[in-house]
Amino acid sequence: MDFTASQVNEDNTPSPEGSWNTISANRKPASTARPRSELITVGIQLPPGTLTPKLPLCDLLATIIAAANLSPKTSAEVTLQAKPAQSLVFLKTPSPITAHLLLSLTSLELNGKPITIKPYAPSPPISCLGVIHNVGGHFTTSQLLHDLEFFTSDILAARMMGSTESVLITFAGTIIPRFVYFKRVSFRCRPHKPKPPTCTRCLAIGHRAHQCPQHSVPAKCRRCASPLPADPDAHVCAQPWCIHCQVNTHSSLDSTFPCLLDKQRDCAKAAFLRRTAMRRATQPSPPSSSAHEFLSPPATSPPGSYATKVKGTPPMCTFSSNTPSPSLSNESRSFDLRLAMLERNQREQQRVSDELQQKILALTQTLATTTSSLTSQLTELNKQLTTLTAPTSSCHVTKLVDMVETTTTAHHTRLVKLENSIVWILTTLETQSQQLESFTYMLNSLQESLPPAKKKEHARVGASSTSKT
Q1: Model pTM?
Q2: Which residues contact 128 (CB under 8 A, 6 or more apart)?
Q3: pLDDT tens per residue across span 51-90
Q4: Domain 40-116 adopts which CATH fold?
Q5: Where are the domains of the chain?
């Protein structure tokens, strides 16, 4: 900031000698803000130990820009964010063409050494992951994106999960669908429960093998946790050893030891909380229930006017008694919601009871038909047995006896199954009736606690519904 003494007044007249001079500041013009637009992120996984304090991030950004052959205008829009602990670099740009050029990189030259890289496009911030199982084969990403169908949101990415027949799908938005079509077949889609990252090199929890900070130390055996020699075939495991629990009952990467199970639960809980937080952030906020219309204060006249002398002192502004307070409106709303939920549950229980009654009637008719057919068949078989009295027909008698026993056994089995079904239905009906009674009791108690105005309104609604029916 440049401070200068002005020799003239505000009206451009010279200041008299010996008078005060006004100090004015010549400010620099404010810098133009960078236009904010939607940025595209490109991630690059570097070898472990690459991001060290000896490598300035400015030089790394210049190396990546030179390897991608970006123009000076487009390179000015690229920003870099590094995570040294994970050897990760994120590049952000608003241009899709620049992002495509960055994704096409295969190698870099850092400190005179060429390194192989594989850039990738991370999932957008507002997205969620779902999993479908048993797709019947192993497919490429292009095949999955071509054959996957979902009609309410976009599918951003899809890939197979290792060598399994499960597919990991990235959906746009924060809602995971219940069903997804793959090759025109419906599959149940479930939320992805990520597992904690485990290192197969140092057997630690929290990072992968390509992010291991102990890349200069020999890898450890997955079973006995001892350092592996140069020739892995020459290593002989004595007994399993867990470096986390310090016991020899299981290995370090065993999925059943408590520490890993706790980490899995923490990862699943974190993913659920992240999804719900994004859903809550993206949904529009409901209108505030505390906004009420109050009476405006009366217009006041200037002091000493004729209207003031006639009317006297204006009354104080008072709130309308008809306007409900926020607490009363919230209680009324919650009461209505509970009442509606109880009525809906009562209707659902009634529907289930009616269906069970119909099933009981159908099973009773089937049982009666089966019993009558069994009785008629046994009568015919008895008649045939009485008519076969010749000694030469002993083989026929034996066959008929076997037929009678087989038929009797089959019908007995059917009768037992029908009886079991009837017993199960009766038990379910009894449970449903008990729940229905409890819901009815709760509904009656809620209706008794209704204010008089609410009781009149519900009585009027019930009378109108009965008249319509």
Answers
A1: 0.45
A2: 170, 171, 173, 174, 175, 176, 191, 275, 278
A3: 777 888 888 888 898 888 888 888 888 999 888 877 888 9
A4: Ribosomal Protein S8; Chain: A, domain 1 (3.30.1370)
A5: 40-116, 127-191, 214-228+237-280, 336-461
